[in-house]
Amino acid sequence: MFRQGRYFKGSWLVFIVVLCVLTACSNQNDGKTENLAMIKRTNPEPMDIINGMDEKDEKGLISKVKETVANEDTIYDVIVVKNGKKIIVAYKVKHLQRFHMKKIEKTVTEHLEERFPDNDFIVSSDYKIFLESVRLNELLKEKDVPEKKARKKFKEIEELQKELI
């Protein structure tokens, strides 16, 4: 009888410890897609530094760019940010397609340049570029963001891509 009571107390102690660990490890997401960008599909809205969301963009250009890239079988998440004639297109490749990343990047670039010849594309499958683009996208969603600050962040991403080449 004495042993059963001891077992009962020990199981409660284990239960409380497990509950505390699970509570501490839970992800408190404050609404930012950046926190989940690596694991899940975030599907961020295409943004224009000058005009904000796609609504004022010339005939939905950045939406068409995103749609073009998203239609690739090997890609599962795309972010598009436009600054004048330059457009950053960052994407995530499906896990089993990682061995073909250079080929995918070349194909995506060719499709975009063929379909939208008047624009300069910065195309990347690098996760750092994707994450920085998500951060820029989050910044652009805020109200009263100075255009100068947004352009500076865009330029930083552009420089980061050049370093990777």
What are its keywords?
alpha/beta; five-stranded mixed β-sheet; 5 helices; single chain; 5 strands; about 160 residues
Draw up the topology in text.
Elements: H1 2-25, E1 47-48, E2 52-53, H2 61-70, E3 75-83, E4 86-93, H3 101-115, E5 120-124, H4 127-141, H5 147-164
Parallel strand pairs: 1-3, 4-5
Antiparallel strand pairs: 1-2, 3-4
Give a quick precis of the structure:
This protein has 165 residues and is an alpha/beta fold. It contains five helices and five strands, in the order αββαββαβαα.
Q: Residue ranges: pLDDT <50 for 5 or more in a row?
A: none
Order of helices and strands, N to C? Answer: HEEHEEHEHH
Strands of the biggest beta sheet: in what spatial order? 2-1-3-4-5
**CA distance, first residue to last residue:** 72 Å
What helical percentage do the residues reach?
40-55%
Mean pLDDT: 80
Shape verdict: extended
State the helix count: 5
Strand content: 15-25%
Structural class from helices and strands?
Answer: alpha/beta
Number of DSSP strand runs: 5
- Major β-sheet annotation: 5 strands, mixed
Estimated radius of gyration = 22 Å
Explain this structure to me?
The protein is of the alpha/beta class. It has five helices and five strands. It has helices at 2-25, 61-70, 101-115, 127-141, 147-164, and strands at 47-48, 52-53, 75-83, 86-93, 120-124. A five-stranded mixed β-sheet has the order 2-1-3-4-5, with helices on both faces. Helix 4 (127-141) runs antiparallel to helix 5 (147-164). It is extended and about 70 Å long. The N and C termini lie far apart (72 Å). The model has no long low-confidence stretch (mean pLDDT 80).
